[in-house]
């Protein structure tokens, strides 16, 4: 496996990826022998994944496969000029799937800046997928383990996708996740009532929930808004 290569071979693979990505024209399509080899490997790995029915098992396998592509990703980020790269785009999705959020954000910034598309088989564009999947990562995934970190990650997603056209429901889902993560951070500071000094943060969380509801009334934040409003009023009254 590529992940078990020596440091010298990994460096060579990275430099080859960098040269390949750099040789492709902006807004063009990546080509070359090295790229074709990566496409072949990716196709082989995707066939392997199709052998599993369990989504959880697929994610576990993806996590073991990602190190094999690390040098390719590093090379594209270092030398790429923005040419479409289906390997890179697919691996962006895999990093989100496996909860490698920090790496995914770096990749997403590059992909969105250069207007990447996802390969055939994906029904959403990159911005919509990010809104949906990062929000899901907090609402029902591993991001919920650290609300403070989640606020930072989700805030980055909000920034990166701000200029992208996306369904209102997907954007509402992200605002909901941000608002709930902010509330969770407040709860860590004070698990009963909001301290007067934290009212501004609570109002920012409320603004996120209000934005979510404005985009989609069915996003399910009404009760959260009501509870937060009561807490804000109590905090303001005790100030």
Automatic annotation (TrEMBL):
Origin: domain of life: Bacteria
InterPro entries, sorted: Phage_P2_GpM
Name of the protein in question: Phage terminase small subunit
UniProt organism field: Janthinobacterium rivuli
Gene giving rise to this polypeptide: gpM
């Amino acid at each position: 496996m590529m992940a078990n290569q020596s440091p010298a071979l990994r460096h060579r693979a990275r430099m080859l990826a960098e040269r390949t990505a750099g040789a492709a024209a902006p807004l063009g399509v990546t080509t070359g022998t090295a790229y074709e080899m990566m496409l072949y490997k990716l196709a082989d790995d995707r066939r392997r994944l199709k052998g599993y029915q369990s989504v959880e098992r697929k994610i576990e396998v993806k996590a073991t496969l990602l190190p094999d592509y690390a040098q390719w990703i590093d090379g594209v980020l270092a030398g790429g000029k923005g040419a479409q790269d289906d390997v890179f785009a697919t691996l962006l999705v895999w990093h989100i799937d496996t909860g490698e959020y920090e790496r995914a954000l770096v990749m997403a910034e590059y992909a969105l800046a250069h207007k990447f598309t996802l390969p055939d088989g994906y029904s959403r564009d990159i911005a919509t997928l990010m809104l949906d999947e990062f929000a899901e990562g907090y609402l029902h995934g591993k991001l919920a383990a650290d609300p403070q970190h989640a606020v930072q990650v989700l805030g980055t997603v909000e920034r990166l996708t701000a200029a992208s056209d996306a369904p209102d429901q997907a954007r509402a889902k992200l605002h909901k996740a941000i608002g709930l993560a902010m509330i969770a951070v407040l709860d860590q500071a004070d698990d009963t009532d909001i301290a007067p000094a934290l009212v501004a943060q609570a109002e920012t969380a409320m603004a996120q929930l209000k934005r979510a509801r404005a985009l989609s009334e069915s996003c399910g934040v009404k009760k959260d808004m009501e509870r937060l409003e009561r807490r804000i009023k109590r905090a303001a009254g005790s100030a």
